[in-house]
Amino acid sequence: MIRIIFPLLFGIATLLSVPALADQATLAHDAPDSYTVVRGDTLWDISGRFLRQPWRWPEVWRLNRDQIRNPHLIYPGQIVVLDRSGPYLSIGRRIGGPLYEKRFPQIHSEEVDSAIPSIPMQIIEPFLTRPLVVDDAKLAGAGTVVATETSRVFMGAGDTVFAKGVEGSDVWQVFRPARPLVDPVTNEVLGHEAMFLGTARVTGHGRPATLKLVSSVEEIGVGDRLVVSERPEVFSFVPHAPDAQVEGRLIGIYRGVVETGRHNVVTLNIGSRAGLERGHVLALHRERGSVVYKDDEGGKETFDLPQQRYGLAFVFRVFDRVAYALVMDADGPVTVGDSVRKP
Q1: Residue 40 contacts by C-beta under 8 Å, 6 or more apart in sequence?
Q2: Residue 342 burial (CB < 10 Å; 0-12/13-18/19+)?
Q3: Which of 132, 79, 119 is nearest to 102 (CA)?
Q4: Residue 131: its pLDDT value, please?
Q5: Is residue 283 within 8 Å of 311, Cβ to Cβ?
Q6: Which residue, among 200, 192, 195, has the nearest Cα to 218 in the 3D structure?
Q7: What is the pLDDT of residue 140?
Q8: SS3 content of the chain, % helix, strand, coil (to 5)
Q9: Please, what is the Cα angle at 280 between 27 and 57, to 5 degrees?
Q10: Paired sense of beta strands 106-110 and 99-101, if any
Q11: CB burial class (10 A; 0-12, 13-18, 19+) of residue 288?
Q12: So what's the pLDDT on residue 72?
């Protein structure tokens, strides 16, 4: 059990630290006066009970920038209270029967992993620590499996492999550089998507080093690469729109399919260089193509039809020039080549 001291979820002491927007968040037509948080909820789910635009959560909580990037956490059993005059949301509790809104710090004891996440963690968890994108520099600095025990072609969990370039750490992730990530506009290679193979632990240092394969999801062989294992992070970023306009494309869907839908992971051709950060929400737009209009006199005109906005995606991992996002809402199929931009 860990004690977490927090002054009323997301810091009510800093109310009004976000400027009011010209267009206020819109309440859902059946928004309740209050809601008791239960295990399995997400910040997006809870926001969606009150708002038509769940990603506008920070506005109704009146969060400042630091709170959006590193919010305090909400826990099962707490009561979210709606003030319709804003609309505003805050945390309350029931004493006796009537709803009583807290306005003082409280000590809260909970298991760390019971806090409510921003989005469904069971979907994105494998993507938070595994090497997803490797550029030329990271690839050049990666370790390499140079031999397997008893000269077997492929190895799995419990087997021993030998590798070079694995100094400085005892725990490694094994991957295989897969398809190049190509920008559909410039045809430039943005990096290489890595195929995660498993994890390994150094049992003997040297050149080559000896490693035991701790886990494997695919067979591992000579030539496969290794990077230092990343520590898992608590993901609690609140959904929010980018400060500036961003324009990008879907360049891939996890597992190589060309279409997907809600609660699936997509790859974007923009990253931190374009100002993207974890927690950003982007609108999904599909191309409608072009049409040729023929008038009565035989003349022809070509019209590019406007794009159609059809969904939202939540960015949860960002690299220099590539990012991964989870499709949160979609009206129809999500397709490689679709556009993303600030909602």
Answers
A1: none
A2: middle
A3: 79
A4: 65
A5: yes
A6: 195
A7: 80
A8: 15, 40, 45
A9: 25
A10: unpaired
A11: exposed
A12: 65
Q: Is 217 helix (H, G, I), strand (E, B) or coil?
A: coil
| The pLDDT of residue 4 | 32
Tokens of 94: 């029931």
Amino acid at the residue 74: I
User: What residue type is 21 in one-letter code?
Assistant: L
Instruction: Give average pLDDT by consecutive 10-residue segment, the chain, 343 residues.
Output: 32 32 74 90 87 82 66 80 84 53 43 69 77 76 91 88 92 87 88 88 94 92 90 69 92 80 92 92 92 87 91 92 93 93 92
- What the block records as the tokens of 11 is 């810091």
> How far is 176 from 220, CA to CA, in rounded Å?
9
Q: What is the DSSP string of 246-284?
A: -EEEEEEEGGG-SEE-TT-EEEES--GGGT--TTBEEEE
Long-range CB pairs of 255-258, under 8 A, 24+ apart, other chains included = 256/179, 258/335, 258/336
